[in-house]
Amino acid sequence: MSNVSRVGDSPSNNATSNTQFGKSVESQAQISDAAVMASGGPTGEPLNVYRLEPIASDNDPRWDNDPSHGVVVVAARTAGDARIVAAGRELDFMEIDAAPAEGVTTSNASAFRDDKLYTVVEIEHGRLDLSRNVLEGDIL
Length: 140
Prior knowledge:
Blueprint: H1 25-35, E1 47-54, E2 72-76, H2 79-89, E3 118-127, E4 133-136
Antiparallel strand pairs: 1-2, 1-3, 2-4
């Protein structure tokens, strides 16, 4: 049973919104931050250092979508931000001529953002001499 109702001459309500994934102010800010990582050196903002480690077994089918990059160390605001910083370093299909569809980004499908593939461990706290960036590890 639906909670949608129509009263009088009001237009039909199909109980959907025009909200689109990744279009919120917060999402756009995170995407923008990730795109400009390390552009200006240390900002004086307290950052933490995180190690992202693969935790899924080598034969886990989740690796079929995105290969493991091994252990990566990043400077970021939070553990969630560490995942965004690492994912921001990956090549996005929007940056090459092989986009899966016009206007479709693959940054949200990164293995770094999957908590079943990577875990995040804080290794330093409150550093003022770093900028949001990947500090160690190779991300292709």
